[in-house]
Every structure is written in C-alpha cells, then in structure tokens.
Design a protein that fits this description.
This protein is α/β, with parallel strands linked by helices and about 450 residues long. It is built from 14 helices and 14 strands.
Length: about 450
C-alpha cells in the first residue's frame, strides 16, 4: 500500500468580490449582488473539469463539500457536484466531505442520495458528515445549541438506514420519521466510508475513535494537527485498537512549481485570498451562542492564548508557511513537507494536494495539478505509481459481461400478472410471440392483435 493518499479538493470559490477591506465578512452578510451568474457558469464548468481530471492525473480521490451564503465556497449542494463527477469518471473515489446533516430537515434524504450515488458510481463514494461551521446557522432555521445533538442523531439514523432492513420507525429527540425504508441501498458494505472533518474538538475525536471514522483536520498549523492525531491515537487505544494511518487525514493547501521562488511568486496572492478574504469571518458569525460546548470553547481559547494563534483573516503569508498551514515550493520542497506529515504526524492522506487555492486561474490550477501528480505523488507510492484503488478489485464489473457474471440469474425476476391468468409473466420475455396467447387478452388489446 502507498505511504500517503492524495485527494484533490475544490471549494469552488467566487473571487470577483470587492477588496476585503470594503466588507466585514465574506460570510453571511456579503450581499449576493456581487455574484454574476455568467461568471459563475464559467467557473462551475472549469471547477468540475478539474475534479474530473483528478482521475487522469492519478489522484486517490476527488473531494467536494457543503457551504452556504459566502464567496469562499459556492457549493450549497455537494451531492449535485458529486453526481456530475461520478458520471464522468470510472474508478476514482469521490468524496462528499461533507453533508451538513444537522441542517437537513430529514437525514433520510441524505441517506438516500448517498446510497444512490454509491450505486451509480459502482461503490466509489466517501461520505463525510459535518456540523457546518457556525456561519451556516444564520441562513438555516436550526438553533446552534441543537447542532451537536442533531448531528449525532442524524448520524445514527443514516447508518441504521444504510445497514438495517426497512421499513422501521425512527422516534428521536429531533427527528420523527414513521417509515424509514431507503431505496436504493448502497453498494459498499456495511456502508460507504464515513469521514468527519474537524478542528480538534475532543468530542469529535472521541466519537471518531469510537466509530472508527476517518478524521480530517482542516486548515490548521502543524502543531494542531499533531495534537489532534495524538489525541485520536489515545482515544483509539481506549477503544481497544491501534489507530491505522488511514484514519488520519489533513487538509493542507499546496502549490508546486519549477522552483521555490517561482512557486511563491505564483501562489502567494491566491493563498492569501483563501485565508484573508475567503475566511474573513466575524467572531460572532463563527461562534454563534451555543455552537460550541463550554469545554471545547475553553480549549479553543486556551490554544489561542498559549500558542498565540491568529484568526485566518489575520495570518500573513509568512505565518502560513512557517506554521505549516500551507506547503509551497519546488517538488523537492513540497515532498519534504509531506514527509513530515507522513513520518512525524502519522497522517495517511492529505487533501488539497496539488489543488487550487482561492480564485486561482484555471491554467495555474492545471499546472499545479500536473507537476504535483508527476513529480511529488510518485515519491510516496509503490514503484508502479498507482493509486491504491487501481490495485484493488472493482466492486462492480466494468462491462455488462462482467456484471452479468457477478449477478447470475436473479432470485426475483421482474414479473407482472396477466389478465385471465393465475400465474405471472417474466417481463424480460413476455414480448416473445410464443409467450403471447391472444385468448388471454380482452378489449382493445385483443382487437389490435387480431388486426395484426
């Protein structure tokens, strides 16, 4: 198996907004009058093409996510984007990291859509669940104080819907669904892999370990990633198992070019937009009352005090580089940065690897992707350079002949009752002349057959 997995990640930002000094937040209050749908049309199609191209370049997967009412990430429905990507790719996993399940009125709808995508893709879906950051709760009718309870109840309901035969009734604190009976069921057993993104919340790390979910640390300095992975390892030991490398992921915006100097020249403005403009968020939006538990809130501010951490919008480019939020440089420099995450932090995979940051022009995003795939990725792989999924057997055959061999004769072929018959007919062969008896049909059907 490869030492690291590399996932292409896209936020789908919209960069055509005023200078950040002219507004107080890129989220919640930045008016959508600044959004031009014609530009958006071009951007969406470029972004989707990049996600699809990740398979050609050999990435371990392409990842999308959900955000609302902001310029940082214009993807309010990641399942729609994932649907476009899975129909244009063949083998690459597609991750939705993730659906903000506390914000959905009916979690069963999420279970249905993910199951449907898993079936369409042949078992290639990674299903991420997120609470949604505090900003998301300003344009959704869900109290932030309920978000943790709603999240874990929705998580339990979705897993049960995927793994237990229906119909059954769900009667919870936040959801009542009289008839849970998900059609279709997902291909992957017992269910698609679940990832949880986070910023080091002890509650989240504990639940990740208990459920053996993959934990994804989002945009954080190296010290915070190490602290979170060490805590996850401790929680896994409490749960009675050794933490596998694949359970630790980190999102690290990365840009690679021919030389260190050239990489910084090309990436600096886009990395700064990502953190200083895209993540320009008022504290009152980021942490609405009740969004964080007292324990997590105290832990967060203790880390800020002890480490001198800054809000993303206040980080300088030097801060981003020195503290390990981002990795920028030549192929050698970038590889050395990833080696630290692999060897010292124990990470099994990284997101944003060779991915665009901020409103990066398409040509630059493609250049980054290609150099990363050709000159960095192979250094962390077996000699054949393949992503792990190409060495594993496909869950579903690639051709009709393969699928037919897998399926065999169905236990329940499609049938329908025929008027005048006690038995039913196999709908796959009922059209054959020898299967049709005119005496069994009446009225118009019989008259039409006699005319023929």
């Amino acid at each position: 198996m490869n030492k690291l997995k590399f996932y292409f990640f896209h936020l789908m930002p919209y960069g055509f907004v005023p200078k950040s000094s002219e507004f107080d937040s890129s989220w919640v209050t930045l008016s959508n009058e600044h959004y031009d749908p014609t530009r958006g049309h071009q951007l969406y199609n470029e972004y989707i093409d990049l996600l699809v191209a990740a398979e050609k370049y050999g990435y371990d997967g392409a990842i999308v996510n959900e955000h609302h009412a902001n310029a940082y990430g214009t993807m309010p429905s990641p399942n729609l984007i994932a649907a476009m990507v899975v129909t244009r790719t063949q083998r690459m996993p597609v991750g939705i990291v993730g659906n903000a399940i506390p914000l959905h009125g009916n979690p069963v709808r999420v279970a249905e859509e993910i199951a449907m995508l898993d079936v369409i893709s042949g078992g290639r879906i990674i299903s991420g669940f997120v609470r949604g950051i505090g900003c998301e709760y300003f344009n959704n009718p869900v109290p932030p104080t309920d978000s943790v309870e709603r999240f874990w109840e929705a998580n339990e309901l979705i897993l049960k819907a995927w793994t237990e035969p229906g119909p059954f009734t769900w009667q919870g604190k936040h959801y009542y669904i009289p008839n849970v009976n998900v059609w279709p069921r997902p291909i992957q057993k017992p269910h698609p892999p679940v990832w949880l993104p986070g910023m080091g919340s002890l509650e989240t790390l504990r639940e990740c370990a208990r459920n053996r979910y993959t934990y994804m640390m989002i945009f954080a300095p190296t010290w915070m990633c190490k602290w979170a992975f060490d805590k996850l390892k401790e929680e896994a030991e409490i749960c009675g198992y050794d933490l596998p490398r694949d359970q630790c992921m980190a999102a690290i915006p990365t840009y690679v070019a021919e030389t260190d100097k050239q990489a910084h020249r090309e990436a600096k403005a886009h990395m700064q937009w990502l953190f200083n403009t895209g993540l320009k968020i008022k504290s009152s939006h980021y942490f609405p009352p009740g969004y964080m538990s007292d324990r997590s809130f105290r832990g967060y501010w203790s880390a800020v005090r002890d480490k001198g951490a800054k809000a993303p919008m206040d980080l300088t480019y030097d801060d981003l580089i020195k503290q390990g939020y981002i990795i920028v440089g030549s192929p050698q420099t970038v590889a050395e940065g990833y080696a630290e995450y692999c060897d010292e932090l124990g990470a099994g995979g990284v997101l944003c690897a060779g991915s665009p940051s901020g409103p990066m022009p398409n040509w630059m995003a493609m250049k980054n992707m290609q150099i990363f795939a050709e000159e960095v990725m192979p250094l962390f792989r077996e000699a054949d350079g393949k992503p792990d999924y190409l060495r594993e057997g496909q869950k579903i055959g690639a051709t009709n002949a393969e699928r037919s061999a897998q399926l065999g004769e169905p236990d329940n072929p499609p049938t329908a009752p025929l008027q005048g018959m006690d038995d039913v007919a196999d709908l796959r062969t009922i059209h054959l002349p020898e299967m049709i008896d005119a005496s069994l049909y009446e009225g118009v059907t019989r008259e039409l057959m006699e005319k023929d």
